[in-house]
Amino acid sequence: MVNPSASSVTARRQVLISKIFGADHDLDVAETNRRGHATKLALDAARNGYEAVVVLGGDGTLNEVANGIVDTDCALAALPGGSTNVFSRAIGLPDEPTDAALVISRALAQRQIERVGLGSVNGRYFLFHVGVGWDAALVEEVERRSELKRYAGHPLFIYAGLRTFFFTYDRTRPHFKIIHADGTIIDDAYFSVCLNLNPYTFVGNRPFNLAPTATLDRGLTNVGVRSMKTGTFLRLIGSALGRGVRLRSDKSIDFRSDIESITFEAFGTVPYQVDGDYLGEISRLEIAHHPDVMSLVVPPTLTF
User: Fold this and answer.
1) Is the pLDDT of residue 149 over 70?
2) What does the pLDDT look like over 33-80, one tens digit per residue?
3) Does the pLDDT value for residue 120 go beyond 70?
4) Is pLDDT above 80 for 254?
5) Residue 123: left if φ>0, alpha if ψ -120 to 50, beta else—which one?
6) DSSP the chain
7) Which of 18-22, 193-197, 228-232 has the lowest mean pLDDT?
8) How far apart are CA 276 and CA 298, in angstroms?
C-alpha cells in the first residue's frame, strides 16, 4: 500500500520496491488518495485473506493500516516513506525505503511475524504515541505547512516546536488533569505524551528518548509535564537526547510505566495528536493498552 503524497515516496522507489517484493511474493499494489482510505483498504485486505499489508508511507498511513488489520491475522509491514518514520526506525529498520524493503522481504520469507500490543485513545488504536497539549499544538503547526515537509523535514519540526513554545501555546496555566487507574490525580498538566514504543521521535539520526521503558510487549508509559518553565523544558530535552533516565526523577514530570489505562480531562478543551496526526481539540481522552492485538512483520534486530 502506497501513499503517493508521502515525503519519501517517488515513482522510482515504488518500482524498485515492487520488484523486491514481487520476486518472492504474490503482490498487489494499492494507492491511498484521502484520509481514512488506508484503513478501508487494509480492512479489505484482511477480510480477503492477505498475509500482510506492506506500507510505503508515513506514520499516519501506518496508523490507518493498523486500525484496519487489528484483531486479524493479517500482518503490518512498515516501510519508511514519510519525513521522520518514527515507527519503522524504532523497530530497527533502515531509513532508506529500498534497504528496508529488502529486510522486510526476508522477514516475510522467514515468517518473522510477532503479535504485539497497541494503545487506543477514544477507540482509535495507536502504534507509538498519543500527544496531548503542547506536543499536539506543535504537530498542528507542522501540518499547517505540510507542503514544506517533503523538503524541510527536521528543521520544520524544530521551527514549529520553538514557535509553539514561545508564541502560540499558553504556558501560563495547566491545561488538563491526568487520572490514573489507581485513583491518583495530577491536576496541573501542561502537556503529556503516552507511549507504546520508544523513542518519541528522532532528531536527525539521534533518538529522542522520552520513555526507554516503552516496548511493544509491555503496557503504556505516560510522561506528564507539570511545568512549562524554560528550565524544566531544557532539562526534559537534555534528558531525552540522552538516555531519558533523568525524566523519571524530575519533580516536574509525572512518569508512569506499565499502564493499562489512563484518562485525561481538559480544563475546557485541549489539542491532541495520534502517531503524528493532529486530530483537533477535545475535552476528555480515554487511553487503554491492548496486548497481543496485532501481527507485525519484525526485522531480525527487534527483540522482545
Assistant:
1) no
2) 999 999 999 999 999 999 999 999 999 999 999 999 999 999 999 999
3) yes
4) yes
5) left
6) -B-TTSTT--HHHHHHHHHHHHTTS-----B--STTHHHHHHHHHHHTT-SEEEEEE-HHHHHHHHHHHTTSSPEEEEEE-SSS-HHHHHTT--SSHHHHHHHHHHHHHTT-EEEEEEEEETTEEESSEEEEEHHHHHHHHHHTTGGGHHHH-HHHHHHHHHHIIIIIS--SS--EEEEETTS-EEEEESEEEEESSS-SEEETTEEE-S-TT--TTS-EEEEEE----HHHHHHHHHHHHTTS-GGGG-TTEEEEEEESEEEEEEEEEEEEEETTEEEEEEEEEEEEEEEEEEEEE--TT---
7) 228-232
8) 22
Residue pLDDT, tens place only, 185-228: 999 999 999 999 999 999 888 899 999 889 999 999 999 999 99
Q: Return the CATH architecture of domain 125-292.
A: Sandwich (2.60)
Domain with CATH 2.60.200.40 in the chain: 125-292
Residues of the chain with CATH 3.40.50.10330: 11-111
pLDDT of residue 39: 97
**By the 8 A CB rule, do 100 and 167 touch?**
no
Q: What is the dihedral of CA 158, 196, 175, 154, to 10 degrees?
A: 10
What whole-number distance in Å separates Cα of residue 176 and Cα of residue 186? 9
Q: How would CATH label the architecture of 11-111?
A: 3-Layer(aba) Sandwich (3.40)
Taking the C-alpha atoms of residue 137 and residue 149, their distance in angstroms, rounded to an integer, is 16
Mean of pLDDT values over 153-160: 73
So what's the pLDDT on residue 152? 55
Residues 30, 247: Cα–Cα separation, whole Å = 42
